[in-house]
């Protein structure tokens, strides 16, 4: 178990840390508003735990340490296209995201009732 309380890994990987001048406008930006509206429409529940100021991303790294895919969030509403992850891994197919209904939450975590289909 590795805990990075100082978030050094985020810094070294170039993941953006927001501040008061960048977070609030980003929260009201078009992409973030669209993402919030979509999650409300699909009844995706969740908590607001975590560090609101820290953006993340997605890294796909091969066994030799080479980055096959690097995606860094610029705003809170951005997410990597799952099809880009498949492509980076050399997996043929397409993920079609469907309306899965509300997440089912237990004491430890939330899960969607079904998974996206892979073709």
Describe it.
One of its GO terms (molecular function) is prostaglandin F synthase activity. One of its GO terms (biological process) is prostaglandin biosynthetic process. It is found in: Cytoplasm. Keywords: Cytoplasm, Oxidoreductase. The chain is α+β, with helices and mostly antiparallel strands. The chain has one domain. The protein has four helices and six strands. It has a two-stranded antiparallel ribbon with strand order 1-2. A two-stranded antiparallel sheet has the order 3-6.
Number of helices: 4
Termini gap = 35 Å
Overall helicity: 25-40%
**Overall pLDDT level:** 79
Rough outline: globular
Biggest sheet strand order reads 1-2
Protein name: Prostamide/prostaglandin F synthase
GO molecular function, one term: prostaglandin F synthase activity
Pfam families: AhpC-TSA_2 (PF13911)
Main location: cytoplasm
List keywords for this structure.
119 residues; alpha+beta; two-stranded antiparallel sheet; 6 strands; 28% helix; globular; oxidoreductase; PXL2A/B/C; Prostamide/prostaglandin F synthase
Short description:
28% of the residues lie in helices and 16% in strands. It is an alpha+beta fold and 119 residues long.
Q: What's the layout of helices and strands?
A:
Layout: H1 8-13, H2 20-27, H3 30-41, E1 57-61, E2 67-72, H4 82-88, E3 95-96, E4 104-105, E5 110-111, E6 117-118
Antiparallel strand pairs: 1-2, 3-6, 4-5
